[in-house]
Amino acid sequence: MALFDLPLDELRGYRSASTEPEDFDDFWAKTLQESREHDLDARFEPVETHLTTVRTYDVTFAGFGGHPVKGWLVLPAGATEPLPTVVEFIGYGGGRNLPHTHLLWASAGYAHFVMDTRGQGSAGAWGGGGDTPDPVGSAPAFPGFMTRGIDAPENYYYRRVYTDAVRAVEAARSHPLTDASRTAVLGGSQGGGISIAVGGLVPDLVAVAPDVPFLCDFPRSTTITDRDPYREIGNYLKTHRGRADQIRRTLAYFDGVHFAARGRAAALFSAALEDATCPPSTVFAAFNAWTGDDKHIEVYEFNDHEGGGPFQEAAKLRWLSSHL
Asked: Which InterPro entries match (predicted)?
């Protein structure tokens, strides 16, 4: 796809029109407090992967509402002291996959925690699947996850996912071979959007690295592109006429722009200028809102949603080595 969004010089100054709810901080403080009333109960069971360079653990911890959430913890095989830790969140429709697909960060000497996204991996849209159901039902929704419970912020699917993600950081930090003082979060697309949310909700992270992040600048993203997953919202509103204001109110509590305004950690973003799934203006909206002074964005001029791919992985390896 050719360039379709704002020119790069305008992207660098672009600001979202998303309006932050007055009770945004109270909403999230209450949400996390309620989930922390459940024991984290993080359990790490060794897994035989037949790999000699890493040790892998099957993780279960209590996420939103105390619901069991799965994950992997992958460690360098010879680790005996606490390691800097990378917590990763997965793209839309995928799950934690199989252990041998997560070797990069442990190979670089980090503890690597991968969170399974509730409901998505078990649905099996791509990859090797997942093992975390979402036991919460919702009002009628368009197929997919973007409109589940969208009638109210308290019911919205991503309230559960963002809470799971904060608890995933807590679970990762609970293992004796992770260094809680050196924790980074990262992910691509949906995983990038989740990492931005966690960056705004967990104040003591060292680094946040969202690639071509999803879930940002909803007023623009839901109207500038007709690609899924954002288009799920438009398709929902085609049949639920007259609810647009109600839906905009719900989405405002989950907009990466507002979490970015609370982000203090060092940040490395990436954007692709031909990305019609997560349009570059919506990525720059979150990047420009990020309040930490140590921030940088890699721009891939002729790429779609694949973004920087292995080039961005190399950039993150270089960047994290100086922060963790």
From this structure: AB_hydrolase_fold (IPR029058), AXE1_dom (IPR008391), CE7 (IPR039069)
What size, in residues, is the chain?
A: 324
| Residue 116 annotated as catalytic | no
Domains of the chain, residue spans: 8-321
pLDDT at 137: 76
**Exposed e or buried b for every residue in 148-169, given b needs 16+ CB within 10 A?**
bbbbebebbbbbbbbbbbbbbb
CA distance to 86, 118, 121, 161, 162, per residue, from 67 (Å): 23, 10, 16, 11, 13
Q: Residue 16 catalytic?
A: no
Contact 111, 177 (CB under 8 A): yes
Q: Which of 215, 228, 183, 225 is nearest to 117 (CA)?
A: 215
% of the chain surpassing 90 pLDDT: 91
Please give the DSSP secondary-structure letter assigned to residue 114.
E
Q: What is the pLDDT of residue 2?
A: 81
Amino acid at 158: Y
Residue 156 marked as a ligand binder = no
The CA-based diameter of the chain, rounded to the nearest angstrom, is: 59
CA 178/CA 173 separation, integer angstroms: 6
Cα(72)–Cα(70) distance, integer angstroms: 7
Strand partners, 187: 89, 210
Average pLDDT in the 158-165 region?
98
125 falls in which pLDDT band (50, 70, 90)? Answer: low
Which one from 116, 134, 255, 275 is the annotated catalytic residue?
A: 275
**Amino acid letter, 289:** A
Q: What is the pTM (predicted TM-score) of this model? A: 0.96
Determine the distance from the C-alpha atom of residue 159 to the mean position of all C-alpha atoms in its chain, rounded to a whole number.
12
Say whether 305 is catalytic: yes
**CATH class in words for 8-321:** alpha beta
Tell me if residue 68 falls in helix, strand or coil. Answer: strand
Check pLDDT > 70 for residue 1: no
Q: Which one of 189, 195, 221, 281 is the catalytic residue?
A: 189
Residue 60's pLDDT is what?
98
Of residues 126, 109, 106, the one with CA closest to residue 55:
106
Catalytic hit among 112, 175, 240, 305? 305
